[in-house]
Amino acid sequence: MQRGTVGLLLMMVGAMGTFLSGCFAVNRAGMAVLFHEEPLPASRVVADVAYRDDPEAHPEKHRLDLYLPVGEGWPVVVFVHGGGWDSGDKNLRFGGADIYANIGRYLARRGVGAAVINYRLLPDVAWTDQFDDVAAATAWVYRHIASYGGDPGRLFLMGHSAGAHLLSRVAFDAVWLGAYGLSPDPVCGAVSVSGAAYDLTDAAALTGGGLSYLEARFGDTDGWRREVSTISFVTPAASPFLLLYAGGEPPSLQRQSHLLHEALRRVGVASRVVVVPGESHARILLTLSRDDKIAGPALLDFIRHTRCSQ
Fold first, then answer.
1. What is the pLDDT of residues 162-192, one digit of tens each?
2. pTM for the whole thing?
3. Is residue 142 a contact partner of residue 182, using CB atoms and an 8 Å limit?
4. Domains of the chain and any CATH numbers
5. Where are the beta strands (DSSP E) in the chain?
6. Distance between alpha carbon 204 and the CA centroid of its chain, in Å?
């Protein structure tokens, strides 16, 4: 098992909902079949942009990479990687494939800008600092993307696994963007890919070994389950959501997406669930940069047809 890959992924397994550290279940031979590299001229990529430049900024984790379409006025996606909150990087490579960068190139070639971000990892920082990092990156993109040709009024958040948990909290809880002088209004929509930890008060999420896994990351106070659960912060003001997950994921992890979907629908927020058949929690990432799979086209359709308030 290998920690630094799209590996150490949070997985809720079986009816007992056991949380395990997973590894990227694609061998190098299979990668050639699953991974389709998207070309993009180097002139359309701006790497290692500092989204924080204050004295406390981290030299690697407070960075993002921009993938820029041709022209002007295009929408932009802020992408947050997964990794169980304590691993992962925007520059992840596996079997020669630069997985997150390929998603950025895929979007840019189809008229959607992308900012693939890093953020600080546990246990080096408090878990709430990760929300702050995602908010800081989002605020930077909102304030600067027009200078690259993008439309800040068409800003989307997107993340995988733990990254989906982080972006959903920033999308729902106004305090994080508020710290950077923004209301949640700039977020036009959000895309969750195999999201985790939306509702940790759900019995299926915390039986078995899950409790000890999460307590080690988030604490063991009486209210930690609700405080960590992003579903606790859903309001009618939330942005529309697209929830993607893999058909090969454990049922208890699939259930997390449906719990969030139901919570959004109850308060009148537009939400759609799309199941990607034949894939796993990790392999679904590869389908986000392919037109011949369900996830990539569903993502593009959501971005192109979601009406933004700005």
1. 999 999 999 999 999 999 999 878 999 999 9
2. 0.90
3. yes
4. 9-305 (3.40.50.1820)
5. 9-13, 18-22, 45-50, 63-67, 74-80, 113-117, 150-160, 187-193, 241-246, 271-276
6. 23
